[in-house]
Amino acid sequence: MMKEDRLIRREIIRYQEQLKEFRISFHQLSVLSPTESSIRNWCKGVAYKLIELPALSARVLQTHKLPYRELVKQYLFNKSNLKRYHKYILAIFLLKQGNYQHLSEYLSFSL
Q1: How many other CB atoms sit within 10 Å of the CB of residue 93?
Q2: Do residues 47 and 40 make contact, with C-beta atoms less than 8 angstroms apart?
Q3: Which of 50, 103, 108, 110 suits a disulfide with 11, CB 3.0-4.6 Å?
Q4: In this predicted model, what pLDDT tens digit does every residue of 65-99 receive, in sequence order?
Q5: Nearest Cα to 16, choosing from 84, 100, 108?
Q6: How far apart are CA 66 and CA 20, in angstroms?
């Protein structure tokens, strides 16, 4: 159990540092997270779409921003929702893209 606790702590610290590069804090996530499950699921869908497409994933990691134009044009995602929930979407993307195996088990970002 203690080894697992250390692994989780390391992942939390690594995830927190990666979020900081994207100008996202845990506090912001708690405040900005959507309350409706349908919106949370929509955000997860956007994040998973980014992960599925290597060109968009690379762009997000390079620019630290969502590729709004491509997401709206290719997938007809609502731009105002993308902008409103971009930090939440990026947090999900980073969690799954960054292979935070232990941390993912404790967070409900799975579809």
Answers
A1: 25
A2: no
A3: 103
A4: 999 999 999 888 889 999 999 999 999 999 988 88
A5: 100
A6: 16
